[in-house]
């Protein structure tokens, strides 16, 4: 029979061991190699005992037991596919320090289906042919998987080396009492054809002496007998595990030095030279490849062939233990680039093992080694091959050396993938697990024990700590505590032992409650104190208990794993944990982004959650920190409490790109959770035991397989019974909904059509729109009305809701399409355009059409961007003509730059359209209703009722019933929104938009009690998205309130004695005021005025209480409402009032319709107010008729006259404001249209007292005062910095929890500032320290931001604001950070520069009075405005349009430098840019758009 790779290994084994095990499988028979042996030299002069084991009979358990009992030098001959199942036994073998050497030949595996093969123990036996041949490749994955078991690992690249290292392995195993694994590639081992020198007779005795054997035996006797059967099964139940008595393992240095020493002996004997880590190449190499010796031969060959002068190769013979020091010593310090060459059968793992070892070496070495490298880290690349390594060609290596690596990942050939990693600090790049580790630290604090992460920042950063490693040692720790419990139990029951009664009681209580972390601590602490007292008198087991007192506390044991485990659950640590039944928690991170999820069904991740739930007694949770912080928190706590294995699957998408932004991570998370790809749930078997439902769904949708599991287990029906509201989304899995989509859409179109048809004649017209905002859609609706008036039947829909084939059936199709992005189709027209633009033929010759486009010829201002103007409509028109459709009339082009924006062109185009359809001009019929449509809607609404109540009852949709209702709800403080991050994905899946509601709470003056704060906090968790927004107008806002939670939300708010009425809508809104009435008596009087005025101007309709609070005022009768101030049409537009207290203009008095500036008497008491009118921020890009305006000061009124004055200003606007054009309806336009003098006269005519001359006052700034301040009455106030007003918990800054804790003990108030921050007001001196400690604990004390950051403010924008064109709240902090380095460098750290950002020109964060403002134009592009007044008194002006982030930084950096160098004393940035001519001052709203 032919010789195989095992023959030489068998020879070596025979020569150097006392017992040999061969592991046979159907495809591999190492026992035959033993049978063939002729040379009988053996180390002990007796033939070793040979045992043949079968691969499928857990052979390593027998080997481990035998080595433990007999303590013989043991050799094993096996193929690598038997290693994975052996992991627990390998750990054991290593911990008992047996001198076992496992000789493995790497096995070929089908890379797509390794698990099955392994389980069946029947790996394919095809000859190694390299990769790409039906996916069968020799796999080193098995070898890598056992690298942390405590075995030393040697690898070789040819048969001679394998033989030589086999002898060295055995000698090193004996001399260090460390088990070894000696691995060789099957191809290299057997088939090299080279003659092997088998000189073991001479070499073996030189390597291993009798003395070595004796010394090893002595060390072995220190290892006591162990109870083997129980160790991995139920350690927590008390069976002892004696492995903890094992002597500590040999150190890395010890093993490394020993191997090096033995190799030197070998060389002396044979002349054959090896080094544990072997460098080949020039001493000044610039590039060095690093490879395990196994699999390196082709690389070696290719490098030699390439003749590169400055390229070297490191071959690793001794891979474990990994010596960072020796690795660095082997590497020439001239190296600039290290290419780690490694097999990677799966493309999913972010980093491969050797790459991690190499990278970590640069971070974790001693000071000496660091000095040698002078802190420089070469660029480290990961070059992966998918085959055996044997088929890497010379060309591949050449390509690797010459490539510029422009992209993060590129493939040189299908088997060779290089992945460069940032040279500076490759591992710290990833903070994928940081948020979860921070949470674990926060929740469990001292009890936390992360076994394989050791509380490091990153689990990846600690390459030597893998889950497999951690598992073994965790089991040991669990067992040790169990033994301690046993000791305690025996001690308290020992009647011969004298124990003081209190101690016995404490110990007994502890024993009973040792699994409960709190009680274990309490009774443990008692026991420790008592033991301490009796310290000297302790005897026997009590003394032993005392020395082990650290075991009293119940640790929270965690292992952290990666999503790569999901490809092979059975062989990863997951399976071990589940089957151990031990009280161990496993946190498994999944970093695969939703948008890059693996679609290949052949190579799918297994669902670990389902796998574990099927197991039964395992706690399982699926969480996502960027979706729900509190759900993660609950899951971690429950996992810890669960007495048994827990698995927490944690999502943290990490897109494969440099500088991943938090927004990307957030969006990926939302997509994953919303689509049901990553459902949030908890499965707690402990609840089932209590008769409760074990499954709790924490998100809305689930994926199909989970649904099937729940159906099978009957839990689904229970969930639906308990929560009928979620039934609809829950039971509609993604798949079934996608199928239903077409049917539903067709039906909807048909229904709409039938409705519209009602009795109409004439040619049918199909009106299709593409619209991102509402302009194009609005025109489409107007066309439908126009068609009705002309007796035409018409129907309309978004372009994407029809297929292009539908065009062939139509006679007349009218398109109204706007322009989005940069010359792109709006989102609801993209699919349609994709199909149409690809079509080469379409039967539309009978179809007549017309296109009206909406665009803005100045949206992208550079000349070369003119192509983007109205591009979609132009392209659509041309394509339809190309396909043979017949134009009814020429393309119409609406332009925002025209006098009346798109209306200008529409007015010409629309009549032509009707004529082309054969309609005569209408006679006697009004084309457009003269009455304002909005007024009509208000009148029809019956004092703001509409059909809101009916809409709330409809559970088939997440939105309100009618468009009018969405406007009416604003008067109730509610905005219907949809999550824009999810729009496209939901559309793809045929789902309606992700509707939810924003609810704004009216908080006059921004004052809330601690009880109200607690209520808001809890309402946000129970009915909204878990966060609380403090707004720019001193209100609370809840986001993400689902329709089914809306009523509950409003009721809870009212229960807390706050409400939402008139928080939005065409009424007076929340009245703002300087937030701190305790600062002085004056502030208090002002605040009282604000509250009174707010109450005075409230709408009086009872609709609010009727709809939301179920309070019908007049039982049994129709309610007749009356609005004494507003009348049935309310105001033309929103109306905003503020009250300022100089010198602080924090409320931005000039930015509001009506303002009151407090004026004092000489004694400091309140005399009255200067009145300001006509401020306002909103405008529309490109529409010069819209502009921001700062208010005029019109005079002074006394305190007693102020409420009446406020009322009358509002009534002038009620009567004269423009009700026809909402874009022109604010008070600022009423005043500018008629003149300020007219306004004063009109106002005066309504007042019984004269308005006096304005009195002098002085503002200094419009910012908040942070930190502690003391009021006149000696009470303290602390103003916290809340980034953009968003109160939330993050693992690093758990602000929301912190404020909740403060609210629980605080006796004063919470005050919302106009800049979205928060004052903990009215703190007694005696309570200040306590509050301060909580502020510190929850990171609310952090105020060391730059002046720029402290004075920055952003609106909400994406994802909820429907008007947002660009990010704002989620983006501003990172933009400011980019500017901060310059700000700090030039010494402006503490200088306040007001910076504001909004996602659209509407101006919610009052950008136009900021010194620097960014106003969203399109995704990632902002208009930059400069020159606003430092205290909000002057408008800024457009500096440059549509700048991207790098452009913004490039523009502002030199400007900030110049400001630092050239500013005058006390000169503010806004004034400076005007003085030096960077920007022209804006002197009035009307000239805001004048740039020259
Ligand atoms: C984010 C954004 C990007 C735009 N890009 C363009 C453009 O590239 N070319 C253009 O002609 N108009 C552009 N416009 C102008 C719009 O097409 C125009 O305002 C139109 O009236 C909007 O209609 P809609 O509300 O139906 O979407 C853009 C508008 C926005 C908000
Ligand atoms: S400024 Fe625009 S984007 Fe920002 S919240 Fe207001 S409307 Fe939305």
Bound compounds: flavin mononucleotide, iron/sulfur cluster
Question: Hey, roughly how much beta strand do the residues contain?
Answer: 15-25%
Average pLDDT number: 83
The separation of the N and C termini measures: 96 Å
> How much helicity do the residues have?
25-40%
User: What is the SS-derived class?
Assistant: alpha/beta
Low-confidence stretches: 110-137, 224-247, 346-350, 405-418, 420-430, 453-466, 731-743, 753-761
DSSP summary: helix tally: 51
In what order do the strands lie side by side in the largest sheet?
2-1-3-4-8-7-12
Shape: globular
Number of strands: 49
Q: Supply Rg.
A: 38 Å
Largest sheet geometry: 7 strands, mixed
Outline the structure in words.
The chain is of the alpha/beta class and 1492 residues long. β18, α22 (573-580) and β19 (585-590) form a beta-alpha-beta unit. α3 packs parallel to α4. The longest helix has 27 residues, at 467-493. It is globular, with a radius of gyration of 38 Å. The model is unreliable at 110-137, 224-247, 346-350, 405-418, 420-430, 453-466, 731-743 and 753-761 (pLDDT under 50). The structure holds flavin mononucleotide and iron/sulfur cluster. Residues 1355-1357, 1361, 1363-1364, 1368, 1398-1400, 1402-1404 line the site of iron/sulfur cluster. Its EC number is 1.8.1.2.
Q: What does the secondary structure layout of this molecule look like, with pairings?
A:
Elements: H1 5-16, E1 19-24, H2 30-35, E2 49-54, H3 59-70, E3 74-79, H4 87-95, E4 100-106, E5 108-110, H5 114-120, E6 136-138, H6 141-145, E7 152-156, H7 159-176, E8 180-185, H8 186-190, H9 200-207, H10 210-221, H11 252-270, E9 277-280, E10 287-292, H12 297-306, E11 311-316, E12 318-320, H13 324-330, E13 337-343, H14 353-361, H15 367-373, E14 379-385, H16 394-402, E15 410-413, E16 416-421, H17 434-444, E17 448-450, H18 467-493, H19 501-512, H20 517-533, H21 540-547, E18 556-562, H22 573-580, E19 585-590, H23 608-615, E20 619-624, H24 629-641, E21 646-651, H25 662-674, E22 681-683, H26 685-689, E23 695-697, H27 704-712, H28 715-722, H29 724-731, H30 734-757, E24 761-770, H31 775-789, E25 792-798, E26 812-818, H32 830-838, E27 848-855, H33 871-882, E28 886-887, E29 892-895, H34 902-916, H35 933-940, H36 948-953, H37 963-971, E30 974-978, H38 983-988, E31 995-1001, E32 1007-1008, H39 1010-1023, E33 1028-1030, E34 1036-1041, H40 1043-1055, E35 1072-1073, H41 1081-1096, H42 1103-1109, E36 1137-1140, E37 1154-1160, E38 1166-1173, ...
Parallel strand pairs: 1-2, 1-3, 3-4, 4-8, 7-8, 10-11, 10-13, 13-14, 17-18, 18-19, 19-21, 20-21, 24-25, 24-26, 26-27, 27-28, 27-29, 35-36, 36-37, 45-46, 46-47
Antiparallel strand pairs: 5-6, 7-12, 9-11, 14-16, 15-16, 20-22, 22-23, 30-31, 31-34, 32-43, 33-34, 33-42, 37-38, 38-39, 40-41, 41-44, 43-44, 47-48, 48-49
Helix pairs in contact: 1-7, 3-4, 7-9, 7-10, 7-11, 9-11, 12-16, 13-14, 18-19, 19-20, 28-29, 39-40, 39-46, 41-43, 44-45, 46-47, 49-50
The structure holds flavin mononucleotide and iron/sulfur cluster.
């Amino acid at each position: 029979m032919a010789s195989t790779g095992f023959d030489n290994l068998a020879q070596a084994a025979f020569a150097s061991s006392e017992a040999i095990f061969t592991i046979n499988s159907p495809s591999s028979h190492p026992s035959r190699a033993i049978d063939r042996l002729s040379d009988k030299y053996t180390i002990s002069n007796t033939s070793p005992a040979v045992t043949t084991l079968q691969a499928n009979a857990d052979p390593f358990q027998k080997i481990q037991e035998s080595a433990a009992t007999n303590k013989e030098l043991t050799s094993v001959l096996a193929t690598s596919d038997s290693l994975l199942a052996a992991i627990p036994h390998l750990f054991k073998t290593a911990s008992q320090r047996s001198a076992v050497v496992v000789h493995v030949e790497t096995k070929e595996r089908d890379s797509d289906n390794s698990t099955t093969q392994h389980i069946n123990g029947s790996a394919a036996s095809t000859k190694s042919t390299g990769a790409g041949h039906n996916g069968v490749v020799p796999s080193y994955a098995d070898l890598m998987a056992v690298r942390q078991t405590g075995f030393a690992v040697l690898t070789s690249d040819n048969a001679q080396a394998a033989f030589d290292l086999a002898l060295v392995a055995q000698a090193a195993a004996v001399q260090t009492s460390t088990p070894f694994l000696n691995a060789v590639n099957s191809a290299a081992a057997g088939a090299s054809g080279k003659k092997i020198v088998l000189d073991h007779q001479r070499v073996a005795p030189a390597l291993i002496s009798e003395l070595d054997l004796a010394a090893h035996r002595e060390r072995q006797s220190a290892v006591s007998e162990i109870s083997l059967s129980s160790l991995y099964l139920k350690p927590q139940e008390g069976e002892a595990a004696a492995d903890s008595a094992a002597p500590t393992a040999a150190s890395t240095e010890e093993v490394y030095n020993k191997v090096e020493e033995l190799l030197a002996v070998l060389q002396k004997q044979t002349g054959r030279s090896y080094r544990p880590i072997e460098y080949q190449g020039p001493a000044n190499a610039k590039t060095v490849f690093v490879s395990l010796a196994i699999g390196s031969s082709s690389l070696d060959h290719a490098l030699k062939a390439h003749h590169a002068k400055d390229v070297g190769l490191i071959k690793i013979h001794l891979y474990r233990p990994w010596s960072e020091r020796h690795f660095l010593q082997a590497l020439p310090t001239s190296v600039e680039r290290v290419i780690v060459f490694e097999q990677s059968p799966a493309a999913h793992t972010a980093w491969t093992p050797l790459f991690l070892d190499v990278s970590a070496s640069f971070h974790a070495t001693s000071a000496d080694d660091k000095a040698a490298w002078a802190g420089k880290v070469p660029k480290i690349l990961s070059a992966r091959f998918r085959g055996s390594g044997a088929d890497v060609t010379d060309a591949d290596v050449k390509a690797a050396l010459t490539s510029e690596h422009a992209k993060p990942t590129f493939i040189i050939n299908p088997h060779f993938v290089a992945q460069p990693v940032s040279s500076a600090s490759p591992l710290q790049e990833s903070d994928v697990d940081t948020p979860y580790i921070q949470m674990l630290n926060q929740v469990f604090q001292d009890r936390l024990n992360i076994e394989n992460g050791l509380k490091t920042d990153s689990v990846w950063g600690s390459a030597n700590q893998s889950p497999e490693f951690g598992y073994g040692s965790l089991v040991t720790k669990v067992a040790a505590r169990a033994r301690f419990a046993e000791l305690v139990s025996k001690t308290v029951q020992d009647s011969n032992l004298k124990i003081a009664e209190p101690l016995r009681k404490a110990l007994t209580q502890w024993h009973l409650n040792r699994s409960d972390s709190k009680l274990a601590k309490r009774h443990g602490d008692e026991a420790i104190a008592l033991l301490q007292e009796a310290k000297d008198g302790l005897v026997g087991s009590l003394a032993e208990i005392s020395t082990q007192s650290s075991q009293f506390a119940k640790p929270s044991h965690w292992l952290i794993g990666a999503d790569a485990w999901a490809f092979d659950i059975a062989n990863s640590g997951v399976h071990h944990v589940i089957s151990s039944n031990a009280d161990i928690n496993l946190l498994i991170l999944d970093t695969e982004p939703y948008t890059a999820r693996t679609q290949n069904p052949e190579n799918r991740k297994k669902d670990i959650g389902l796998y574990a739930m099927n197991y039964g007694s395992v706690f399982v949770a699926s969480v996502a920190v960027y979706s729900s912080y509190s759900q993660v928190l609950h899951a971690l706590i429950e996992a810890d409490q669960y007495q048994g294995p827990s698995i927490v699957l944690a999502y943290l998408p990490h897109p494969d790109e440099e500088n991943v932004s938090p927004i990307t991570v957030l969006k990926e998370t939302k997509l994953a959770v919303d689509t049901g790809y990553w459902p949030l749930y908890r499965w707690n078997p402990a609840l089932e035991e209590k008769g409760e439902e074990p499954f709790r769904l924490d998100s809305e949708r689930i994926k199909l397989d989970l649904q099937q599991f729940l159906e099978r287990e009957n839990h689904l029906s229970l969930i639906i019974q308990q929560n009928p509201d979620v039934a609809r989304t829950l039971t509609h899995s993604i798949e079934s909904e996608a199928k239903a989509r077409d049917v539903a859409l067709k039906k909807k179109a048909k229904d709409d059509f039938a409705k519209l048809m009602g009795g109409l004649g004439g040619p049918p017209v199909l009106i299709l729109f593409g619209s991102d905002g509402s302009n194009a859609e609005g025109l489409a609706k107007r066309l439908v009305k126009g068609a009705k008036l002309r007796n035409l039947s018409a129907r309309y829909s978004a372009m994407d809701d029809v297929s292009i084939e539908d065009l062939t059936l139509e006679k007349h199709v009218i398109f109204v399409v706007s322009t989005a992005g940069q010359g792109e189709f709006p989102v609801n027209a993209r699919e349609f355009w994709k199909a149409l633009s690809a079509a080469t033929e379409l039967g539309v010759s009978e179809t007549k059409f017309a296109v009206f486009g909406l665009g803005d010829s100045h949206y992208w201002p550079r000349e070369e961007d003119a192509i983007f103007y109205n591009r979609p409509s132009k392209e659509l028109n041309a394509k339809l003509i190309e396909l043979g459709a017949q134009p009814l009339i020429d393309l119409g082009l609406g332009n925002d730059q025209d006098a009346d924006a798109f209306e200008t062109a529409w007015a010409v185009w629309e009549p032509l359209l009707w004529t082309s359809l054969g309609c005569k001009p209408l006679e006697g019929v009004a084309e457009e209703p003269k009455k304002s449509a909005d007024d009509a809607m208000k009148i029809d609404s019956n004092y703001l009722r509409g059909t809101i109540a009916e809409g709330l009852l409809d559970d088939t949709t997440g939105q309100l019933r009618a468009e009018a209702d969405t406007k009416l709800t604003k008067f109730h403080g509610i905005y219907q929104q949809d999550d824009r991050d999810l729009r496209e994905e939901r559309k793809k899946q045929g789902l309606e938009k992700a509707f939810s509601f924003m609810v704004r709470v009216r908080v006059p003056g921004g004052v809330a009690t601690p009880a109200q704060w607690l209520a808001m906090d809890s309402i946000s968790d129970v009915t909204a998205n878990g966060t609380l927004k403090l707004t720019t107008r001193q209100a609370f806002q809840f986001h993400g309130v689902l329709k089914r939670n809306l009523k509950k939300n409003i009721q809870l708010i009212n229960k807390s004695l706050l409400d939402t009425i008139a928080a939005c809508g065409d009424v007076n809104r929340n009245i703002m005021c300087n937030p701190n009435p305790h600062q002085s008596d004056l502030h208090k009087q002002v605040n009282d005025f604000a509250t009174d005025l707010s109450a005075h101007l409230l709408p009086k309709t009872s609709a609010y209480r009727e709809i939301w609070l179920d309070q019908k005022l007049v039982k049994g009768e129709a309610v007749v409402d009356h609005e004494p101030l507003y009348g049935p049409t309310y105001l033309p537009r929103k109306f905003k009032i503020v009250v300022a207290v100089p010198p602080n203009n924090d409320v931005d008095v000039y930015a509001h319709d009506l303002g009151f500036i407090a004026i004092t008497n000489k004694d400091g008491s309140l005399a009255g107010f200067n009145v300001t009118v006509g401020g306002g921020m909103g405008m529309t890009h490109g529409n010069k008729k819209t502009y921001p305006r700062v208010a005029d000061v019109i005079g002074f009124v006394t305190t007693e006259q102020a409420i009446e004055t406020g009322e009358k200003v509002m009534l002038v606007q009620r009567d004269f404001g423009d009700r026809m054009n909402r874009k022109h309806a604010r008070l600022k336009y009423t005043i500018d249209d008629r003149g300020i003098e007219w306004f004063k006269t009109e106002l005066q005519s309504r007042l019984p007292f004269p308005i006096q001359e304005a009195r002098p006052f002085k503002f200094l700034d419009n910012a908040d005062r942070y930190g502690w301040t003391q009021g006149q009455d000696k009470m303290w106030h602390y103003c916290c910095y809340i980034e953009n007003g968003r109160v939330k918990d993050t693992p690093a800054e758990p602000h929301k929890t912190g404020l909740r804790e403060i609210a629980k003990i605080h006796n004063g108030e919470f005050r919302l500032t106009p800049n979205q921050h928060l004052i903990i007001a009215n703190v007694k001196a005696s309570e200040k320290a306590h509050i301060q400690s909580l502020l510190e604990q929850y990171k609310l004390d952090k105020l060391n931001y730059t002046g720029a950051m402290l004075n920055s403010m952003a609106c909400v924008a994406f994802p909820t604001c429907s008007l947002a064109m660009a990010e704002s709240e989620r983006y501003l902090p990172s933009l400011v950070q980019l500017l901060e380095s310059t700000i700090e460098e030039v010494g402006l750290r503490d200088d306040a520069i007001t910076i504001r950002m909004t996602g659209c020109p509407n101006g919610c964060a009052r950008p136009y009075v900021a010194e620097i403002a960014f106003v969203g134009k399109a995704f990632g592009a902002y208009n930059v405005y400069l020159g606003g007044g430092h205290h909000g008194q002057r408008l800024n002006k457009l500096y440059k349009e549509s700048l991207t982030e790098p452009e913004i930084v490039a523009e502002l950096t030199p400007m900030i430098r110049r400001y630092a160098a050239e500013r005058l004393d006390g000169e503010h940035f806004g004034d400076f840019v005007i003085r030096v001519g960077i920007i022209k001052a804006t002197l009035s709203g009307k000239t805001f758009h004048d740039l020259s």
